[in-house]
Amino acid sequence: MATATAVGSTVEVIGCTSNTETIELYFENKRRSGGGTISNLRRKGNVVLVTFDDPEAAERVAAQTHTLEGQELKVKLRATENIDNTTLIVKNVSRETTDDGLGYFLKDVTGSNVVHIDRERSRRTATVKFKPAIDVLEVIQEFDERSTKKKVLDRAELQLFPVNETRTVIIRHLPKGVSKDWLELYFENKRRSGGGDIDEISLDPSRTSAKVTFTESATIGEVIRRSHSFQSHSLSLSVFYDGVGDDSDESPFEDDDVVEDGCQSLEEDTPPVQRKQYVARKGKPSLERERTQQKAYTPPKKHLTDIRPEYTVPIDGDIIHFIEANKGYLAEFRDAMAAVDATTTRDIGEDTIRVVASKDVNGKSSKEDWEITSQTALAGVFGGYSKVSVPVVPQLWDEVLTDLEEVSQGVLKMKMDDREHEIQLIGKSSEVENARKKIQHAVQAHLEKMDRESRRKTSKINQQNRGKLFVLRQRLDAIRARHKDVDISIDLKLGHVTFTGCQEHEVQSAKCDVYQALDSIIEKRFRLKTCLASFLEGNQENSACSNY
Description:
6 domains, 5-stranded antiparallel beta sheet, Alpha-Beta Plaits, disordered N terminus, alpha+beta
């Protein structure tokens, strides 16, 4: 029975030219490679997929550097792959089996409609698409548990396999002159091809077909959606699934049997055939058979208007990233789009989103109505978010950054380049506006403080009698109350009175009041006995007397 590969147990070895046996011996040698027992080893051109029984062995191998037969190997863990629940790979298909016959059989097995079959007759393999989606692993398990007789179609026992997420496209019928360098430069040019970083490119021996493996699986969607050409020759691209046309451990590009473009739609008319009829009851499919003379199985044709329309709209990448990072906001967004029968997808790194109808829309007017409704809903959602930049003068940069702790937690603060001296705020429009006001208020407060500091004037009254200053300190509150804009301080040890204020006339006015207060304090000297002087010295804090 086909099962999904254990997560994290497979590594990719790129650029290895050693034979398969040498590679297997190396990676089973724990001392040299860090590996262990290998459960599967497959070669695909210059890429070798090594699957270990123990996922920890794969992690050890990926963490080390490797050299084999004088060649440095590039090794990395294979990314976790997701099962495509709309696709099955069917192997060992008889060459006598027609597409409609295969579709009829699989509809009975899965209970779902077959909408497309891609045949590769030379290898007796087919890739089958279903709608609605099925539980692929459950279907395969139930099929494997059947008796052999119930797996046979046209005297051939069928085998079902799941399809994993792929990062590879296949280009068929390449025109003359296409080189590996051109393919690499073209498909790494995101503007020209919609592609991105590439892990591997392989040409078949006849140079009429090529496979391009991208670093990210998300890249494939945009590449397939676009049309491509080389010197006015159109290029034929399709997604390449592991296992399709790959019955051995060797790559199909290593022999002369080049992958053929054997795609045939079930929508094509086929002549009536004499065959067994498979009748499906409600619920689980039945394999009750009866011979009958009938037309070949053909799914209903899909009219051009019976489609799920879609469109792409530009969007601020920072705002959509903020929404995706917040589960509550993301749920609100999805609910709003679901209310208008729409779903959205976004390719990593792209500042656009693709809006797709969640159910079939029939008729031109209905399509236009759906687009208007969904665009209105989309504008309503993103209209509630905003992104603003708040300028900050260089002198206040550090002070204002500390004030960001008081900004609303519902706003994403993005510290910009120090040379720009701007703070970017992203979030709900109301919260962004409140955060902007708080930062602007903090900036204004710091500016006013700097302005006051720059205009402050300082003056002193020096060398005053400490006894008089002690008495003056008791009266200082009343003087300060009359001169609120002037800071007045007394230093008893140095005998100073210091005045600080922004206005010169205010400082001088406070200074005059202090002079008058000092002049009003009368000083008299007395001769005291030693014991009384000692007593007074010990109680200076409670006395206006001082020993001079």
